[in-house]
Amino acid sequence: KKRYKTFVIYSAAGGAGTTFIACNVAKKIRDYTKKKVVLVDGDYQLGTTHVFLNCPNKSEIGRLVGNAAGNIDSLTVTSSTIALFENFDLIPAPDSVEDSEYFNAEVCGKFIEETGHGHPYVVIDTATNLDERNMAFFDMADKIIVVLEPQVCSTTRLASFFRLYKKLGIDQKKLLLVLNKCDEFGFDPEALDEQISTPIEAVVEYDRENVMQSLNKGRLLVDYKPDCDCGISISNLARKLVSEDVPKLEEEDKSGSGIFTLWGLLD
Fold first, then answer.
1. CA 172 to chain CA mean position, Å
2. Cβ neighbours of 132 (radius 10 Å)
3. With the C-alpha atoms ordered 223, 39, 41, 151, is the resulting torsion angle positive or negative?
């Protein structure tokens, strides 16, 4: 029986903020559950989670997976893992773009399964491609956090993603749609009804100043400015993901922040 939970962070368009959300959500899941959490950089060509987490060195995951020749075991995973904080680990993307060829769908599935043996929570940051690797992640996910940036092109790509998603017959209950940077362009969330049928379940307010300050200082926003609107909204997203495992989190009321809201309460 699967003894770990997998949360996949995905966007159909680049620049939506998936890596920022993945890093901060993973840290808050660790804080809330007090259990081991690993963040996996699933963008094997151009992943940057190590930059957001102020980790100067990547692991040798490319060489290790290449040498394993598809036989992924606990030693391969352990050797690829970097401990950042107590109970918070990172498995970064390979140093070399060429090493991404080792990560086919089967290898990705085995790697995540082996990673889950030592981590109750696995958070995967992904590329925008709808390739076999992401399909493997989607199949293993307990929740797929789909991040949408409030731009017309992004919503058009998202609509195409949902159409493909339905054709593949993947369980739509896995999806959790998050609107990020919602105030940057003065975008009306209700306009999305014309293109997609999946409701927005979380809204993250745009906060360029605090986000950039946290990045420049090499700290996660949820640690650097936990009480800013953006920090609270991301914390609430993490709370939503693990509230079934930590019932007391449901008792905490952050609704007054006005930036994490269920669809239908946007007004």
1. 17
2. 13
3. negative
Q: Specify which residues 83 forms β-bridges with.
A: 89
Instruction: For residue 90, list its beta bridge partners.
Output: 39, 82
Residue 8, number of CB atoms within 10 A of its CB = 26
**Phi then psi for 95, rounded to 5 degrees?**
-65, -40
Rounded CA-CA distance 128/58 in Å is 21
Residue 253 has φ and ψ, to the nearest 5°, of -105, 115
Q: Are 29 and 37 in contact (CB under 8 A)?
A: yes
Compute how many other C-beta atoms are within 10 angstroms of the C-beta atom of residue 58: 20
Residue type at 58 in one-letter notation:
K
pLDDT per position as a tens digit, 195-247 = 566 677 778 877 888 889 888 888 899 999 898 888 998 999 999 999 888 87
Tell which residue, 115, 119, 121, 133, has the closest CA to residue 73: 115
**pLDDT tens, residue by residue, 7-37:** 999 988 777 789 999 999 999 999 999 999 9
